[in-house]
Request: fold
Amino acid sequence: MSNIPAELKYTESHEWVRLESDGTVTVGITEFAQDALGDIVFVELPKVGTSFTAGDDAAVVESVKAASDIYSPLSGEITEVNEAVAGAPESINANAYEAWLFKLKPADVSQLDRLLDAAAYGKTTAA
Amino acid sequence: MTLKATPLNNAHRALGARMVDFGGWDMPVNYGSQIEEHHAVRTDVGMFDVAHMCVVDIKGSDVRGFLRRLLANNVDKLQVSGKALYSCMLNPEGGVIDDLIVYFISEDWFRLVVNAGTAAKDVAWMNAQNEAWGTGLAITQRRDGDDAMALIAVQGPNARAKVWEVIPQAKDATLDMKPFNVALVPGTAFGEAMIARTGYTGEDGFEIGVAATQAENLWNALVAAGVKPAGLGARDTLRLEAGMNLYGQDMDESVNPLDAGLAWTIDLVSERDFIGKAALQAKGQNAQFVGLILREKGGVLRAHQKVVAASGETGEITSGTFSPTMQQAIALARVPASVQVGDTVHVEIRDKKLAATVVKLPFVRNGKILAA
Reply:
């Protein structure tokens, strides 16, 4: 069973989402996702200021094995991207919950309620 | 559908392998880190379960004559017992039914090793020719049943020394054996062992065949000797760096092997006729098979990405990955005949066109980077 922190929200497509005190949300990929992808070698981040609708392709994570689209979990505008993770993609393998990809300002924070909690996400990844 | 399992399935699970469905086979893709397994093979020694591949024994009178007509490469290159040859088996249209290695054991016994997913089709094809030509040979697959064999590939600069440690009887028989040769070594702790100095990594090493019932014992003995288990993930990055084709990806029944970098294995010189020869002579070569190294950041080269030459003509990547040895994205590609080694081409990755350099294959051989 993968590590699934209780304080985060999740998508069925294996992004994790954290609501910050300033009202932005931070997005990364889950432990389950990094483990399934294997050695990660490339990360493409969105541009700050870009607006996405929930479910849009926002970033790309490529492992030796495969390329995987990362979807924006909420509608909103990108406020910050993690350049450090673009320079060291393997940091996602090392700690998927620290190596965040981007932060966005949600258009409607109530969309968070549609995401999965840790228990529900755990069920989707149970073999 | 139930997945097929090799005799090493339990051993993989005991080692904590991540298992995947590989063409209907339940196989290990890695045992933790694909990149570490890759480096182990380049710098030390690693091993692969290749028991999903299929040994086919062909026995009888004039096996050579049969293979002269069946295979695109010329088995007359095999004049000394123990010698091996890589060849394609073509259909009458010149498409590739499979690629395989043929081992010359004696005039009444040649052994073939064919791909996992194609084995049933291959044996049916061989049987059909055997019947059509009235050659009366015994063609026996050795993957299932009482006589089943299993193959383990031990690869890397220290592979031979490790194998001799685990199978001491093999040392005398293989110490002076050149690459692309095989010895059958009786009386080992694992029964009779077929030890071939062949592989699919660009490194030295052995492919070892034993009775399927002995495979797990041999695997565990190699683990105990310090040989690192490596999965299909590392096998793919290693063969790609070595510039070796993968059946089903770089060529198949719809692909002209002359356009897939396999002209060196197709004997169009001798008088000998073989299945597919006339079709290939009529078609000729219309594209070339090259290596690409990505020069811009923006992704990893992958199969089916479009390659655009300076002339505007297009080609296609057939296999691509991130090279752990070179730390760059690399690919095998079928490109127009006008493209030259050293040219810059552009590869379409998502919404970008990224520059890549055309290089001669292989990228890496015996631990050294040859193309940069």
Q: What stands out?
A: Chain A is about 20% helix and 35% strand. The interface with chain B takes residues 35, 38-39, 41-42, 44, 60, 62, 64-65, 67 of chain A (CB under 8 Å). The longest helix of chain A spans residues 118-125.
